[in-house]
Every structure is written in C-alpha cells, then in structure tokens.
Amino acid sequence: MITKKITIYRTILQIIGDIDLEKYDLKSKLIVPLDEYLGINKLPFKVSMKAMIEIAFWGQNQSSFQKASEIIYRICNINLSYVTVMNITKFVGKIVYDYNYNNALKIWEDRANIEIDNSKKKGTLYIQADGATVNTRIEDENGSTWKENKLAILFSDSDMYIRKNKSNIINHKEYVSYIGSVDTFRILLFAKAVELKYWEYETIVFISDGATWLRNMISELFPEAIQILDKYHLIENIYDYAKFIFNEDIKKSRKI
Question: Within this chain, do residues 40 and 133 fall inside the same structural domain, yes or no?
C-alpha cells in the first residue's frame, strides 16, 4: 500500500517540483503518515497547492470538466475523475474570487479617500462591457436558473499596435468578469479602473450596446466618459431605427 501511494505521489510531484523525492529513502520505515511526510496533510484534496493550481488552470479553460480531466492525464499523467477536477477548480476559483472581491470592496468603500492626481497624461483608456444570459443549474430566490455573465475589457491606446493597413492589435487587456447583479460587477470594475489609475487619462471611452444598466453604471462611475455604441449592435438595430425615423416606410428604411 505504501509503495502504491509513493508511486502516485511521485507522478503528481513530477509536475509541481516542490519536493525532491530523490533526497529521501522512501523504502525505509516511515514514522509519520505519508500525507504528513509529503506536507499535504492539511490540504483538502491530498495534492499540493501547485498541483491544485495546475488542475484548476485546465479545469477553467476547457469546455467541460471531463475534457479537462482527459487533458490533465495526457499532459501530467495524473488520472483524475471529472468530479475531482470540478471540485478542485471550484475550490481554487473561490480563493481567487474572494481575494479579488475583498480587495475591490476595500477600494469601493474607501473610494472617497483615493488620492487622485489631477494632472492628466496623454492617452485614452478604453472600457468595453456587455452581458450575456446563460442558463445554469442554480436557482435564484424566484426559481429561475438564468443568470447574466457580465464582462468588461480595459485597455489603453498605448496597448494597441497599428498595422500597416491601419487595423489594430490590442497587445494587452485587463478583464473583469462576474455572473450576477450589476451591484457587485460595478465594484469589481471600479477597482480595476483604480488599479489602472483611470483619472490619469485625458479621455475615457466606454463602448457598450447601450443597455440601460450599462448607461447607468457608466454615468455613476465615469460621468466624464465618452459613451459609444459598438458597431455590431449599431448594425443590429439600425434597420429598426430607420423604420422608426421613416414611419415604417420600408423602401426608405432599406436605403440606410
């Protein structure tokens, strides 16, 4: 039994590198439990924190936990059920979320005391946000399983590279994502903007689909921002707008 456990742990530790098993004579009698000997006795999944992070990485960027389980086996030679991958991913994800949210909440509650330098630097900070409704397995207080995933992307003009054909590549972006109400989403978004020192930019441009909750949030957090309706939502709605302008005259509307 001990030999089998050692083989399993050796396989796991190949990818995490936090214990050099060659330094120890594992064939000798152990006077402490193996989990304690390997330093993972206080961790919830009996793998090191580095291994948990590795598993969570694959767990969060695949289409399913089963797919993540298969990839982890192929890459790391660790055979885990999709349930274990799911549990570890949720565990690590909660740690990351709680850390980010608590930091954001401190910034939000102390926003009146933020030291803001009124001197502006050249440049524009772009913020783009949208929401997409997804059906989950978790019911809210009204029995609905539908929730909105809210996402924001932040970047500046210094993060963009202009190609010869005048198109742009954004080399660096910051993301804010949250499934739930705008009340929490705005706290996370504001904290990220503070991290980027949004007040130092000459111009703030907020690109969105023009939804009411987004307009209200922008007006509250960044009243000086220039609000722009994004191109794809403009195209999506321009025909209906044309019909309204031309009093349902289809021929005139189609000329737009």
Answer: no
Domain boundaries, position 215: 111-238
| The residue to which tokens 């783009």 are assigned | 128
**What pLDDT, on the 0 to 100 scale, is given for residue 40?**
67
Q: What is the mean pLDDT of residues 103-113?
A: 94
Residue 254 is assigned to a structural domain of this protein: no
What's the alpha-carbon Rg for the chain, to the nearest Å?
A: 25
Q: How many domains does the chain have?
A: 2
CA distances from 62 to 67, 69, 82, 238 (A): 6, 10, 12, 36
* Residue 102 maps to a domain: no
Q: Is the model's pLDDT at 13 over the cut of 60?
A: no
Residue 103 belongs to some domain of the structure: no
How crowded is the C-beta side of 115, counted as CA atoms within 13 Å?
A: 0
More confident residue, 11 or 138: 138
Q: What is the pLDDT of residue 12?
A: 43
Question: Measuring CA to CA, how many Å separate 245 from each of 136, 174, 212?
Answer: 39, 39, 21
pTM of structure: 0.75
Cα–Cα–Cα angle for 186, 229, 219, rounded to 5 degrees: 35
